[in-house]
Design goal:
Length: 235
């Protein structure tokens, strides 16, 4: 199931210092390898998001409008910090430091190379265009044609969260039953299971990162009428 969803071999923790397939029968290994070769749900969702309607329409580009909105938000918030009547210099310095970290975070989306670097490191899963598609759906989820896609993205994140919850409950059960003894499968038991709780096991980790880049409502640019019209249902 993990293979079909899109979990990659490089994201897995070694099991007894070996790849997990080394503990299955030849027949099962064949089935596992076939599941690895099939197009994953992650790949399908990535391609689907790249086709998000409204990303580009005539002279309109969501990426360009988003970039303008981010710069506007960052400059506005910086001025608010600088003009705030905070007497404590340390507190103001901390706010400005947080502002700089916020700016650096947005650069991982706005600067193509930074996104590509995260993609190659496995820290991001969606292509840059697909990531923008997910952001557009999330920011304009009240538009009729984005309502169901937004619900679908929410369900994908729920699936990842539920799998993480299952792993955590399994780990706790093992710890309560056998402590740190060797597990029934020959693994290090509790210690091995702990390694499966990191974010590498979240296939749709980009959806958990998405709220970082969703702009406050006052900074979200208004969609042009030509775009908004395409996102409505017509009888």
């Amino acid at each position: 199931m993990e293979n079909l969803i899109g979990l990659q071999m490089d994201d897995r923790s070694p099991y007894q210092q070996k790849a997990y397939k080394g503990y299955f029968s030849p027949k099962d290994v064949t089935a596992l390898e076939k599941s690895e070769e099939k197009p994953s749900l992650l790949k399908a969702v990535d391609k689907w998001l790249e086709r998000t309607p409204g990303l580009e329409h005539g002279d309109y580009s969501f990426e360009k409008e988003y970039e303008k909105a981010v710069h506007n938000m960052l400059q506005t918030t910086k001025k608010e910090i600088e003009q705030d009547s905070i007497s404590d210099d340390k507190e103001k310095a901390l706010l400005l430091e947080a502002w700089e970290k916020n700016q650096a975070s947005f650069n991982t989306v706005l600067v193509p190379k930074e996104h590509e670097d995260l993609l190659s490191e496995g820290a991001r899963r969606f292509s840059r265009r697909a990531f923008f598609g997910a952001m557009m759906i999330s920011m304009y989820r009240d538009e009729p044609k984005y309502s169901l896609p937004f619900q679908f993205l929410t369900l994908l994140a729920d699936m990842d969260a539920n799998m993480t919850r299952w792993r955590h409950q399994h780990m706790q059960m093992v710890q309560r039953m056998i402590g740190s003894k060797v597990g029934t499968g020959g693994s290090s038991g509790y210690q091995y299971l702990r390694t499966t709780l990191n974010d590498r096991y979240k296939v749709f980790s980009d959806l958990f990162a998405l709220p970082t880049f969703i702009l406050p409502r006052r900074f979200i640019p208004t969609l042009p009428a030509s775009i908004a019209d395409t996102l409505n249902y017509h009888q």
